[in-house]
Amino acid sequence: MRYLPLTDADRTEMLSAIAASQIGAAGIDDLYQDVPESARLDTLVDLPRHAGELEVSQAIGAMAARNMPASSVPCFLGGGAYRHHVPAAVDALIQRGEFLTSYTPYQPEISQGTLQALFEFQTQVAMITGMEVANASMYDGSTACAEAALMSSRLTRRNKIVLSGGLHPSYAEVVETMARFTPLEVVRNRPMAPMPGVHDTSALETAIDADTACVVVQQPDLFGVLRDFSKLAEVCHAAGTLLVVAVPEIVSLGALEPPGAYGADIVVGEGQGLGVGLNFGGPYVGLFATREKFVRQMPGRLAGETRDVDGKRGWVLTLSAREQHIRRGKATSNICTNSGLCALAFSIHLSLLGEAGFTKLAKLNHARAVETADRLANVSGVDVLNGAFFNEFTVRLAKPAVEIVDTLAERGILAGVPVSRFYPDRDDLADLLLVTATEMNSTADIEQMADGLTEVLA
Amino acid sequence: MTADRSQGRATRESFVADTTNPVTFTGNRGLDLEEPLIFEQDAPGRCGVDLPNVELSQSRLGGHERKGEIGLPGLSEPQVVRHYTRISRNNYAIDAGLYPLGSCTMKHNPRLNERVARLQGFADIHPLQPGSTVQGALALIDELAHWLKTLTGLPAVAMSPAAGAHGELCGIMSIRACLEARGDARKVVLVPESAHGTNPATAVACGYVVEELRSDETGRIDLDGLKSRLGPDVAAIMLTNPSTCGLFERDIVDIAAAVHEAGALVYCDGANFNAIVGRVRPSDLGIDVMHLNLHKTFSTPHGGGGPGSGPVALSAELAPFAPLPWLVHGDDGLALVEHGEGDASQALGRLRAFHGQMGMFVRALAYMMSLGADGLRQAAEDAVLSANYVLARLSSTLSVPYAGPCMHEALFDDQAFKDTDVSTLDFAKALIDEGFHPMTIYFPLVVHGAMLVEPTETESKESLDQFIATVEALVAKAKAGDAEHFHNAPRLAPRRRLDETKAARSPVLRWRPPEPETQSKEQGTKAAKDVKTGDALAASVG
Predict the structure, then answer these.
(1) What residues of chain B, 160 to 219, have a C-beta less than 8 Å from chain A?
(2) Residue extent(s) of CATH 3.90.1150.10 domains in chain A
(3) pLDDT tens digits for B306-316?
(4) What's the whole-model pTM score?
(5) How far apart are CA A282 and CA A346, in angstroms?
(6) Which ranges constitute the DSSP H helices of B215-346?
């Protein structure tokens, strides 16, 4: 078998060395002598025998062929996962064995590559969010969001978490799951369809009380709506409450004011849009940034700069007294393995983009979305509900959105995300469709989408 | 034919090995290249991508436009490729050599897995596509779940957890939800003192009080001690089997029976499943719930710290509490249950935004299909054989706290270094100079100066022999009194020992641009003697 280097001769020789030692076991079965007899399997489990590369490739390839890749059709899906072009260099570099097949950098002298990359990643995340510090990644945007709620509670010693109705419902559910067996009380504001000219934050402001640890908002929100959160930040801070801003579409930060500029205390994000790809939802990379003064309550790993004994600059994992392997039950989080290689992919993509490329990419996304919105607004039975948006907006359809999406999928168009997928019980949201356009959407895509909608809505 | 020596460049006849340590002008040393941060390579106007120019008559950003500069550096593609190539060479990796980190299962990462995970049909599908367009992806998850259920003997598996610790959360939450449904969540989770730190951290995150269980003299859970502690306040035991000492919990069946008798449940940390795949089904041991690390047991790469994947196998009693989404067989093929209604009314909510680590699922299934029922069992046996071989060969060189046989990893303590002034850390650093990644050190905490060696089944005997010979030689050197050698190690790594105290005391967690005035001054004084080490940058962060 191709992954197993030991030959039968090796095994025999090794067993005799073991037999001659104090272990004294004569055969493989003796090495398993501590397993209770009732639990020893004498035969192979009921699964297929080993297979060659070709056979495995063909079997898995057949499963892949039964899916509809997003790039094979006009695709306008967003809702927390965004399709962007990943430069070829990103994948080539993350497949270097030195990055791909190394462990968490516990031995810094021989892990400087990973540590330097993480230090750069942390810096990039801090820069684009407008925050002081960032960690070395979380699992995804939603778990980063839940960790932010927990961290807010630790910092404020308060228990109430207020979630905006515009927060991605899956993020809100993860916060609820994580809070379920803790003293935290999670208050979810009701999600509302976008209304022209209505984008104030008063409903959140009135929800803040003396026990509110944080308010969690999203920019752009689930419906693509953009809001000015600076007043909310003032109200929060006057009440001793933290403002957490979630950014599921990280490319938006190339065009939008960073949350740090309008008073965010913690910024969480989904980094998937840069470097990572869709991957049917995972693995992704959670971004987590905050103020320097809060760093000792941060979850997750941190790379920090230091010197070696020769005075050379180098990096180590630091402030690990926050973490489970040191602090055990008193750790800030139970997280161990994070999303290192996805963080690297994110960082390489952003290094290729640089200031000019990142801002241009964001502008291009916005332009495609504007083109799409304007074209769809001309389709009978489609109302574009957003005034302002980045690359995702909400339309109201004359028929239930899920029916339209299923029908268009049969015609080879991935039209968007029906809001009912998140809120099946909300009849008032059943005709809403989230539409995203990125640099991947051509004018021809947009025409096909508009034509498709025209036909199925007629 | 004789070489023409008149050309002057041929090897000198009287070649003498150069043992000096020459200082270079660049700071580079042959193939070892010093590389500054990307932020220190910025030049305005450079860009590593070409994007079309955008014509936008009117922005729809509603006044939310970014106003200031971000500060991201501009680099061309060749610079970016060179940057990451250079820094990658400062990493040790399983591709390059033995990586015997105990408890981490650093086995070979097959490249077939990388190829199939990148198929468009998996890598380029959106998590919210209609179910009819992702049937192949759902079928792959279903197939992987079938393999995991067969290998664990447990009837259900929750696929969404993103890593081992995330799986622990899933498992302990499902236990708590189940106990609440029975009427009493109880208060205490028992954790052996040798456990991974994630175990107590997880139990606390689920609202439990953690109590540590002492080990007996064989390094295993003390069954009588456990029995005397069990009572109506105990919700669960979180154990690792094989344990973090590399030992099989001999009394596991009796432990599980006692725990169940007391109305509590058994959680197993599956970090060490590699030792028993295909030879022992956890269900036959009385385990109720167990996470599996696809990035350990099933060969998906560690990537310098993730992404992992931590599916959780569950008993029939716990299955109704598995987190959303669920994968079910429906009238129109496979479907996701994404809301807690009907059969899923007791389900935990979501643990993450989408369905799971699809990219890791594809890799893990490719690995499992490659090895098959016969190969998976052989892999487990070879892993155990290799660890016992290391244990046997080194038992007279290093000190062994618990008698073998061991499972997939061999545990040593630091008794062998007594009176040598060499610590476990020093010894690990000396291994670096010899070209090995050190073993796990100072874990588990129950053994003084622990060294936990997990060779895995993908090392050749030659590789194990070289490691064993190196350890023997180093121990002899330590015993001969050359502590200095160890205190100064590593000498030959990209960096020598790093000041971790300084890093923690005044944390520098990001690069910041140098202050304009101090920049030129610092550059002038520092650049000549210390090329590209960025003193000015470190000093500017406060």
Answers:
(1) 162-166, 168-169, 173, 176, 185, 196-198, 200-207, 210
(2) 73-85+354-457
(3) 999 999 999 99
(4) 0.95
(5) 14
(6) 223-229, 252-261
